[in-house]
């Protein structure tokens, strides 16, 4: 009995240590910058300046259906799969959205790059472009995300902005901040552009 208790205690200590290390590592990753305008009814209104995005689009009607292959394509680009064999630092969050054209995943490029400094992707499916700037409504949630949770949170954000009298001006996107193997401290967001005047 004592052996089981010792094993359990050691396992929990190792798990907590791993969680602390991954949490600290995530905090060192550059995050896309925004200005918090206000918080109300459980959501945030943020202003995002434009950022450079690397995006891949594939056929699909779900947010998560092509996420593994899309992630591999984008990771290939930043890990040296470009004309300069240049490595580009990973940032957060990863953007996932969908529309009639299919599902898209985007990595935000580090803020010290401009378009002229970024290497040309080897894979023609990777598109470098600027993100939309403006005001966005944001709903945060934790845990592991899946298609059901994403759709549920989109419905929640949609109802909240309608109750507040805001109009969405684009598609809803899912933002994920963690690596798949992170266990604790997971951060997710649903975000949508809105018409808003300060």
Key structural traits:
12 strands, 198 residues, Multidrug-efflux Transporter 1 Regulator Bmrr, Chain A, globular, alpha+beta, single chain
Please provide a written account of the structure:
There is one protein chain. The protein is α+β, with helices and mostly antiparallel strands. It has a domain at 51-130: Regulatory factor, effector binding domain (Multidrug-efflux Transporter 1 Regulator Bmrr, Chain A), CATH 3.20.80.10. The chain is 29% helix and 31% strand. The chain has three helices and twelve strands, in the order αββββαβββββαβββ. It has helices at residues 2-28, 67-78, 147-164, and strands at residues 30-31, 35-40, 43-48, 52-58, 91-92, 94-99, 102-108, 127-130, 134-141, 167-168, 173-176, 188-195.
Brief overview, please?
This protein is 29% helix and 31% strand.
CATH class of one domain: Alpha Beta
Shape: globular
CATH superfamily of one domain: Regulatory factor, effector binding domain
Mean pLDDT: 88
Please mark out the parts with pLDDT under 50 across 5 or more consecutive residues, or reply none: 9-26
Reconstruct the topology from this structure.
Blueprint: H1 2-28, E1 30-31, E2 35-40, E3 43-48, E4 52-58, H2 67-78, E5 91-92, E6 94-99, E7 102-108, E8 127-130, E9 134-141, H3 147-164, E10 167-168, E11 173-176, E12 188-195
């Amino acid at each position: 009995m004592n052996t089981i208790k010792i094993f359990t205690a050691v396992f929990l200590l190792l798990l907590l240590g791993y969680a602390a290390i991954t949490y600290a590592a995530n905090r060192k990753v550059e995050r896309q910058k925004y200005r918090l305008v206000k918080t109300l009814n459980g959501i945030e209104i943020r202003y995002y300046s434009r950022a450079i995005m690397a995006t891949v689009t594939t056929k699909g009607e779900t947010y998560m259906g092509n996420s593994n292959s899309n992630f591999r394509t984008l990771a290939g680009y930043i890990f040296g799969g470009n004309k300069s064999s240049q490595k580009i630092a990973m940032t957060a969050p990863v953007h996932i959205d969908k529309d009639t054209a299919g599902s898209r995943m985007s990595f935000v490029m580090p803020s010290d790059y401009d378009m002229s400094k970024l290497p040309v992707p080897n894979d023609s499916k990777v598109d470098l472009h600027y993100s939309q700037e403006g005001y966005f409504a944001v709903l945060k949630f934790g845990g592991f995300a899946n298609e059901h949770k994403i759709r549920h949170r989109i419905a929640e954000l949609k109802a909240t902005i309608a109750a507040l009298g805001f109009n969405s001006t684009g598609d809803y996107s899912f933002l994920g901040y963690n690596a798949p193997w992170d266990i604790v401290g997971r951060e997710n967001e649903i975000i949508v552009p809105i018409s808003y005047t300060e």
